[in-house]
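Entry: DUF2845 domain-containing protein
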Amino acid sequence: MAKRMTKAEAGLLFWGIVIGLPIYGVFQLAELVGWYVLAAGVIIILCLVAYFTSEARKRKYRDLMEKYGDSDLVDLIMEGSFWLGQTAEQLFDSLGSPVDIDQKILKTKKKEVWKYQHQGSNRYGLRVTLDDDIVVGWDQKA
């Protein structure tokens, strides 16, 4: 009768496959096309990624300038900053869509807590509080 594999052996086999197969594939590809061609392909791919990332950032900056018309404000938004008095729209443009929103509608105002950086069950690294779509405070975990 065959001996069953232990968890450690199964983990070693898993990581051996996960790491070994790509390395084996790269070596086979390099033998097929040559190391110089493979290196040139990797460099071209990295350059294309950098180019398209840069273009997307420029496009976002241009769109925000059209929207707000203030370069200092747009610079803060592009940095991902948030501040007291910031509008909900600016916060969305700065930090993106929150993971979760707690919303309370009161008689005279709307209170929301936008939650970012989910860390576990109802645990978030950043909670931004808005009253009537204006940032009035935040709680940021270190």
